[in-house]
Amino acid sequence: MNRTTELHPFSVPRYPSGNPAQRVIVQVLVTQDAGQQRHAQLLARADTELRHLALPQYADEAALGEALATLLSEARVGVHLELHGDEAFIWSLCGVARAAGLLGDEITLQCNESGRRMLFCVHCASLQAGTCADLQPCRQCGVMLEVRRHFSERLGAYLGVCADADQPYAQARP
Amino acid sequence: MSALDARVGETRLITPVIREVSLMPVNGTLPAFSAGSHVQLHLPNGKRNAYSLLSDPGDTSHYRIAVRQQAQSRGGSRYVHEQLQTGDQLKISSPANLFPLHSTARLHVLIAAGIGITPFLAYCTELLRRGAAFELHYAYRAGLSDAYVEVLREQLGEHLHLYESSARRLDLGQLLGHRPLGTHVYACGPQSLLDALREQSLALGWPAARVHWEAFAAPEPGVPFVVELARSGRQVAVGAEQSLLEALESAGVELPNLCRGGVCGQCRTPYLKGDVEHRDLFLAHEERASSLMPCVSRGCGSPILLDI
């Protein structure tokens, strides 16, 4: 559990999320890296079929997202999805899965919280991939944002609000 | 809980054991309701039973319910069948919904057995209006619990799948297999159907969040017993044909309640001591040491001291 979660547990995601069914017929594993260790663990489950999509096998994240959408469009109830990666990666694919009809209970999110995360700038309403730093400039409007402990599951993003209204662009004090 | 005045409109026997009753407003219109809602009927004999509303949720000029005569009636279904007359006035509760349609479902699979068809009549009207994808699977006994088969055949066309008990078995494994993501299943019928559904859905990897059910909620009779109310020191006797909740209501003690059948959890009441025969489907094992559901559960030994 990171510092943010301890201070404000209900407005930020908790990992791992989801509520795995007692029995899963088809397990879909999606990993940002090769994910060999988790692949081997899941393969050991006797009565579950495993499908693994790993980002290194695809041109980019968009191509991986399309492959996941295609797989889920043909899937049947009994599927459970497990996503491993940084927050920007897992929440973008979580959106693909929800659009395909999966419920929150059918998606397990495992997160590397030192990676990228999505930010929503409240000043210019842009959605962008940021870092895990607490302060970072908006790439669209340049305002120095404080990343609030407030997460939108719909957007998969944290709220970014001007850190210092007297010096919105973090310019040097005169 | 707020009660409404209603007048009994048309009643008709639709099979030898099922009577349909329409309820009209005494003043103005009735409150709107969503598909799957029920109301409680406050019968003149002191019984209050919950019945699903089967009429069109878009029509608040009247409600319709259907009541199956129970062989071991405690007086509720028998009263509706033998004594209730057009023109009678009675109190009903406002509609409440413990069995709503799931808003993000893309395919609704409805499973009804016998009189369990009632909530699905409102469902089907609503789903047809929305143009939603759905199937109704209806198991019944010809001549006995086949109310609405003809009406449904006309209204639903290929949405309807019939299982007459002597001709075709309802195979839950087949029904739940190979369903697209976005499917939700809803069932209403006897406990044996709901148990089989839970078992089959679990085996096929369905999460509980896709499986919705409504039990026939009705208390069973038992032996008479006595409870004491800790805060007032009053004693309340519960008759064999009466539930604890009904006995408390007769004594002027009103508890919040919705289903009156041990499933919704509204009437949960703490107790300090006594032997309780728990008959509900709501409380977890460890909660039963200090809470009981007076709508169905009964005393069975040393007297119960309720913490109210």
Please explain how this structure is put together.
The complex is a heterodimer of chains A (174) and B (308). Chain A is an alpha/beta fold. Chain A is built from 4 helices and 9 strands, in the order αβαβαβαββββββ. Chain A folds into 2 domains: 3-112, Nucleotide-binding domain of ferredoxin-NADP reductase (FNR) module (Rossmann fold, 3-Layer(aba) Sandwich), CATH 3.40.50.80; 117-162. Chain B folds into 3 domains: 3-97, Translation factors (Elongation Factor Tu (Ef-tu), domain 3, Beta Barrel), CATH 2.40.30; 107-215, Rossmann fold (3-Layer(aba) Sandwich); 225-306, Beta-grasp domain (Ubiquitin-like (UB roll), Roll), CATH 3.10.20.30. Helix content of chain B is 17%, strand content 32%. In chain B, the strands form 4 sheets. In chain B, strands 1, 2, 3, 4, 5, 6 and 7 form a 7-stranded antiparallel beta sheet that branches. In chain B, strands 10-9-8-11-12 form a 5-stranded parallel beta sheet, sandwiched between helices. At the A-B interface, loops of A face loops of B.
Features:
heterodimer, A: 174 residues, Rossmann fold, 2 domains, five-stranded mixed sheet, four-stranded parallel sheet, 4 helices, 9 strands, 22% helix, 30% strand, elongated, B: 308 residues, alpha/beta, Elongation Factor Tu (Ef-tu), domain 3, Ubiquitin-like (UB roll), seven-stranded antiparallel sheet, 2Fe-2S (chain B), FMN (chain B), iron-sulfur (chain B), Beta-grasp_dom_sf (chain B)
